[in-house]
Design goal:
disordered N terminus; 3 strands; 3-stranded antiparallel sheet; disordered C terminus; alpha+beta
Length: 79
């Protein structure tokens, strides 16, 4: 997976969008472009939820807490 961070707004052309690239904006602070090597929308959603913290600081904190809860529950089940 190829990940690039670009400051400011970035507008891709149609060819890039139709290819293997997806784009996510994060409050105009930076733009994350990642190559998922697949055109499937399900994988795109999965990667977005798993690897990228999007939104305001409060949302990021909530997402991190949810990740920690999920990790705790899975480790408890494994034990």
């Amino acid at each position: 997976m190829l990940i690039r961070f670009i400051k400011g707004n970035y507008i891709p052309n149609e060819k890039m969008c139709s290819n293997q690239w997806s784009i996510v904006n994060n409050l105009n602070t930076h733009t994350i472009i990642y190559d998922i090597f697949s055109k499937k929308k399900e994988e795109n959603k999965f990667l977005k939820n798993k690897y990228f913290m999007l939104g305001s600081k409060e949302d990021k904190i909530k997402q991190r807490l949810n990740l920690h809860k999920k990790r705790r529950s899975t480790t408890a089940m494994m034990i």
